[in-house]
Amino acid sequence: MAESRSPGDRGGRGWLIAFGVLILLALVYIFPFLVQVANSFKSDEEATNAGLALWSANWTSAAYTTLFNNSDFALWTMNSLIVTVLVTLGRVFFVSLAGYALARLQFPGRAVVFVMLIGVMAVPGVVLMIPKFLVIKELGIYDSYPGMILPLLVDAAGVFIMKNFFESIPVAVEEAARIDGAGTFRTFWSIVLPMARPALMTIIILSFQGSWNELNHFIISTQSPGLTTLTRGVASLASGQLSSGNQYPIKLAAATLMTIPVAVMFFIFQRRIMNTTGGAVKD
Amino acid sequence: MKIRPFQLGLAAVSALALAAVTACSSGTAASPTPGGAASANTNPVSVLIGSSGEAETTAVTAAVAAWSKQSGIPGEVKVASNLTQQATQGFAGGKPDDVLYVSTDALAGWAANKSLEAYGDQLSNKSDFYPKLVEAFTVDGTFYCAPKDFSTLALVINTKLWKDAGLTDNDVPKTWADLETVAKKLTKGKVKGLVLSHEVQRLGVFMAQNGGGLVTDGAATANSTQNVEALAFVKKMLNEGGAAFNTDIGAGWGGEALGKNQAAMVVEGNWITGAKKDYPNLDYTVAALPAGTQQGTLQFTNCWGIAADADNKEAAKSLVEFLTTTDQQLAFAKAFGVMPSVQSATEGYKEANPTMVPFIDGAAYAQNLPAQRDVSEVLTELNSKLAKLKDGDPQAILEATQGDLQAVVG
Amino acid sequence: MPVDTTTQVRAPSSAPGRQRAGKGIHNQTGTGWLFVSPTVLILGIFLFVPVLMAAWVSVSDWSGRGSPLSSNVNFVGASNYAEMLGGRGLAARDFGTAIRNNLYYVIFVVPLQTAAALGLAFMVNKRALRGKGFFRTAFYFPSVTSSVAITVLWLFLFSASGAVNAFLSAFSITGPNWFQDPRGVFHLLMGGGTAPAALAEPGLLGISTWEWISGPSVAMCAFILMAIFTTSGTFMLLFLAALQSIGEETDEAAMVDGASAWQRFWHVTLPMLRPTMFTVITLGLIGTWQVFDQIYTGSKGGPSKTTLTPAFLSYQTAFEAQRWGRGAAIAFVLFAIIVIFTLLQRLILGNSDPTQPSRRDLRAQRTRNTAATTVPVGAVTNSTGGGSGG
């Protein structure tokens, strides 16, 4: 559309200004993260008094050493990983099963399930903190991995993503498989599911990010330090005691480290955006 | 009608899960009994603490380990990130830790729903605790739990700014008038004479010094003349410029204001030692707070609570007695800067911490803030009004607090 | 989450599964229920049952020990609600304060984040723009990080001697001590001071008119900035997807008519973005009424209760003050508020329903699908999963 930017319309200078503004904005969005990383390598005193500087004469990794030696950071990371991996695996399986059933199978009650899912999506998560605690406690899975994982295993939005995707796959493929005598589950598992890779990727990304960053569910489902996840652990670091000082470098180091996995996920994901946007939209 | 199977399914799963849990819990509960008779209970004791830092965690862990060695009963220390919430969930979930820190704020609620064991009167060293601390952990005449340690407030002076203003040890304020005078002398440029936090947990000292208090003998007395005068005095100092709130000068708390040389004097507790970590060059002196019509300060404390649902209450009590022995109290004081809750450790503490003597001397006249059920919400509300004290009306602020207090303490 | 868009858009039909599935497949009742049963069970147990139980707790005197279903827990009627909604006591005032705070948060965040997202989308959508990928990454990245990590960073940036104030001081501006400053910005604009007597009387929910018009506190402003920082990227992607699907046809047509850039934006592009706008505002409203993570990690409601939100108050009342009934009641009222706001918005902004994209002709629907049906699914997960700033 080069011709649309004719001089009278959007002149070179105007465009340059707009580009400058965009770069400035990008800096505003990126700078905080640079500050975060830089200050995690400073001393307590320097971070408290010269937080804006991206450069320091006395780099130190003391914050990271303290974090690993004196807090349960490694344990928190492990808990977050366990929960995230199990939740993601579970969601991929359950959500695609349900999505397939809603897209393809005829059964009484299908409409009810559908309406229920929409209803569930409308319930704000934060409102459920007290109620979920009560039920988890009554079920006797309070303060345990099952209590942390089970309630997160299914996600109504994910069911919709899968349902929509399955509806876009031609039925012919499945019918051919059925004629060969494959049962519904076989057809689903070995024919349809492999075709759904793009949608499954979406589910994986969403549930990885969602459960890695989840806070309030873990607050209400656990109390033991042994079950602390990164979000809970780092949140507790944030509200430190007066007598231990600000300890900014340690807090920032923790925030930096806990961001790395989602950042990596994001950058892999980003490449997918670049490749598929545009083309895939028009079937 | 399609909902039927769904409901049935729900019911079935819930029932299964519940059955499994009941089976499990009865399994564990059953195991110790077969031995019968009076054989000693050796169930492990878990201890939930809200730690101020590594030093405290290490010290408590070491102490519990020492007790385990002596008693042969395993002990485990857990550090809570948010103690009240985690303990509340533990009580509600039926899985409390056996021994835990209990703040004065949380005590009334947990006493009311019978989550805590009232074991105070059974302690062999009951008479050794400071009486005011015992009072802090007494609800409706029942002494619940052993005071763990305590802190008081005093006047902390920035030595450098003090000398710069040409002041000497003789100028340390003894009365409110003195305080006003030196504060004015010390206020210069970016330096404020006296820096205060706008919360009743600090400003309450002026009420105490004027013979007031928010609750007296179980009745709300927030709007007493003494209290109104006290706040009026603070308001006067704020408006004359000799005093400022820490937030007005951009400091998070008194220690930060001292460290940045923005404050010449602050009202803080013995945790002031922490300021040295952020501001290694800070030099300070501790003095008793000036008196109004009388000496007055506030104290803050936690106790060693024992859960009513604890597996091994006898062991828990023996652990608490161990943790409150004179030697152990001195070890804690040395490790993380708290003050011993037992009077037998007072002299030892003074010897080891000569600069901190004014803090522990405060125990003689310190007041507890009220801690009845729901009072902590009233105090938070009061604090939000104290932030605007400079332009506010002390009488109106305290009348509002009086109303709120009457609703909860009568 | 543009990938969702791309993968989803291929499913425009309203219910083709029903028709197709009917063919030659029998005995699907058992399989169908088997396939959906894990989902139904888990959602039922951890969403449906909890809501019922909390409803009971909100009208009971359960003290927080033992089971709320045991026989010694009593029905207390609507007293927990009455205390909070009708009284003049502290419970009512705390609730009123939380509503005031959150209302300002919503009023500021929703329009600003929508405008920011729209602006960014327009700029990034320029065809001649080099490094599109870079800009998109830069603006979207804050959305993927956890709210806990961002809050930790924010506490540092906005501390008294922190980076933001250091930056401001370069322009000779003395920044406030952000997270410690309870002053309302409208009060500041009015020159501070105290309440005129006429406005000082306790009013709605026990809060005086003067307090109602305080504006967000300086501390809340830091959270507002954070919300815009973390969510504008997500919503930018929604707008981008929409812009891409409408761009070619309409822009050219309008250009032939000789419309100016502004006219094109105002009369052509903006109306076509309406479905996306609807989605963004709906998600914004739902998200901003649920502020919790930031408050829990950062301010705990302070200074002077000016960052207290209903979600945090509910948590605090139950898990810290041990007033479980009132805590549950707050949660229900918050739920009602969210529903009311979403409905109001629907009334004001018009009809498009993001969950049922099947009303207009297929062509229009394709556009709407791109923007409204598919992407928000990702964004919903994101916001309820605690990923975005609210």
Write up this protein.
The complex is a heterotrimer of chains A (283), B (410) and C (390). Chain A is mostly helical and 283 residues long. Chain A folds into two domains: 10-66, no CATH class; 72-239, MetI-like (MetI-like fold, Orthogonal Bundle), CATH 1.10.3720. Chain A is built from 14 helices and no strands. Chain A has helices at 12-40, 44-49, 62-70, 73-104, 110-122, 129-138, 145-149, 156-168, 172-179, 184-195, 197-212, 216-221, 230-238, 248-276. By secondary structure, chain B is of the alpha/beta class. Chain B folds into two domains: 43-151 and 300-364, D-Maltodextrin-Binding Protein, domain 2 (3-Layer(aba) Sandwich), CATH 3.40.190.10; 153-299 and 368-409, D-Maltodextrin-Binding Protein, domain 2 (3-Layer(aba) Sandwich), CATH 3.40.190. Helix content of chain B is 45%, strand content 17%. Chain B has helices spanning 3-30, 54-71, 83-92, 104-112, 131-136, 159-164, 176-186, 200-209, 225-240, 254-259, 275-278, 313-323, 326-336, 346-352, 357-361, 375-386, 394-409, and strands spanning 45-49, 75-79, 99-103, 138-139, 142-143, 146-158, 192-196, 215-216, 219-220, 243-245, 263-269, 284-287, 297-306, 339-340, 366-368. The longest helix of chain B has 28 residues, at 3-30. Helices cover 66% and strands 0% of the residues of chain C. The longest helix of chain C has 39 residues, at 218-256. Classes of the chains: A mainly alpha (283), B alpha/beta (410), C mainly alpha (390).
Structure summarized in a few sentences:
Helix content of chain A is 70%, strand content 0%. With 283 residues, chain A is an all-alpha fold.
Please give a handful of descriptors for the protein shown.
heterotrimer, A: mainly alpha, 2 domains, 14 helices, globular, disordered N terminus, C: 390 residues, MetI-like fold, 17 helices, 66% helix
Please tell me the CATH architecture of the largest domain in chain B by its name: 3-Layer(aba) Sandwich
- Count, helices of chain B: 17
* Major pleated sheet of chain B: 11 strands, mixed
Structural classification of chain B: alpha/beta
For the largest beta-sheet of chain A, the strand count, sense and barrel status come to: none
Q: What is the largest interface, and how many residues per chain?
A: A-C, 137 and 126 residues
The helix-strand sequence of chain A is HHHHHHHHHHHHHH
At the fourth level of CATH, the homologous superfamily of the largest domain in chain A is MetI-like
CATH architecture of the largest domain in chain A: Orthogonal Bundle
Structural class by secondary-structure content of chain A: mainly alpha
CATH class categorisation of the largest domain in chain A: Mainly Alpha
Q: If helices are DSSP runs of H or I spanning 4 or more residues, what is the number of helices of chain A?
A: 14
Number of domains of chain B: 2
Average pLDDT rating of chain A: 82
Averaging pLDDT over every residue of chain B, what do you get?
86
Q: Do you know the CATH topology of the largest domain in chain B?
A: D-Maltodextrin-Binding Protein, domain 2
Which CATH top level class of the largest domain in chain B fits?
Alpha Beta
